[in-house]
Amino acid sequence: MSIILSAWTVVVFVMFIGITIWAWSGKNKKNFEDAAQIPFDDDDEIAKDSEELNNG
Fold it and tell me: Domain locations in the chain?
């Protein structure tokens, strides 16, 4: 049983390292920057819709 737990720990650790390398790699920077701006993209549209509702 301890061999299975040890193997599982190694597998999870390797996956963690792999995901960390993937997230910090330079080729994903543009995608992450675009995704970071998603909450702010609709602010102008929401403000315009709000003005139209208040004025109309």
Answer: 2-55
